[in-house]
Write a structure and sequence with these properties.
Layout (H helix, E strand, L loop, with lengths): L2 E5 L3 H18 L6 H12 L1 H9 L3 E7 L2 E10 L4 E8 L8 H14 L10 E7 L3 H9 L3 E11 L2 E11 L7
Parallel strand pairs: 4-5
Antiparallel strand pairs: 1-2, 2-3, 3-4, 5-7, 6-7
Helix pairs in contact: 1-2, 2-3
C-alpha cells in the first residue's frame, strides 16, 4: 500500500477532513462518549470554522493517504520543546494496517532532518481518553508512555478524562 502525508491547505481539503472527522468520531467514539458529547466535540474542535481557527493559530493538519485515498488525518502543533500530536484518526476500513506506525515514522523523519530546523524537538506528546483501550494499546506499541492523567472541562457540561502520553523521537531512527 502506498502511504502519503499531505498538508491540508485548500477549502476542499478542509471539508474532506471535516467529513472524515464526522464519520470517524461517530464510528469510533460511540462506546466512549454520548452522541450528544460527540456532536458537541465535533462542532467545537473539528468543524470547518474550528479547523480554520486552529490553522490560524499554528496547528497543521495533514491528510493521511493510502493508495491516494483519504485514510485518516492528523493535526500537530510545534511547542517549544515537544511536538503536540493533537489528532491522529484513521478511518475504520484502514485500521490495523500499520498507518499509525507509518504516520509516527513520518514525524520521526521530519524531526530528524537537520534541514527542516526542528532537530531540537525530541518528544511527541498527545492526549488520549482513559477509556480508549484500543488507542492506548496502539500508542504503547509505538513506544508512548503515560506521564499523567488529566480531567478537562471542555464546556457544555462535558469532561474529558485523558492520559497525557509521550514518546522520545529516536535520533535518526534509533532508540
Amino acid at each position: 500500500m502506498r502511504f502519503d502525508v499531505m498538508p491540508v491547505a485548500t477549502e476542499k481539503q478542509i471539508n474532506e477532513v471535516v467529513n472524515a472527522a464526522y464519520n470517524v468520531w461517530h464510528n469510533y467514539y460511540k462506546n466512549i462518549y454520548s452522541e450528544e458529547q460527540i456532536d458537541y466535540m465535533l462542532e467545537k474542535y473539528q468543524s470547518h470554522d474550528a479547523l480554520k481557527k486552529q490553522m490560524s493559530q499554528g496547528y497543521i493538519y495533514y491528510m493521511l493517504l493510502a493508495d491516494n485515498q483519504l485514510a485518516g488525518y492528523m493535526c500537530v502543533l510545534v511547542q517549544s520543546n515537544y511536538l503536540y500530536l493533537a489528532r491522529l484518526y484513521i478511518k475504520a476500513e484502514y485500521r490495523r494496517q500499520g498507518l499509525a506506525k507509518r504516520t509516527i515514522s513520518h514525524l520521526d523523519a521530519i524531526f530528524n532532518n537537520p534541514y527542516i530546523g526542528f532537530s531540537h524537538i525530541r518528544k511527541i506528546r498527545l492526549r488520549v481518553e482513559r477509556n480508549n483501550d484500543f488507542a492506548i494499546n496502539v500508542y504503547e506499541h509505538l513506544d508512548f508512555v503515560k506521564i499523567r492523567s488529566e480531567d478537562t472541562d471542555i464546556g457544555g457540561g462535558f469532561v474529558c478524562k485523558e492520559y497525557i502520553m509521550e514518546r522520545e523521537i529516536p535520533k535518526n531512527g534509533k532508540k
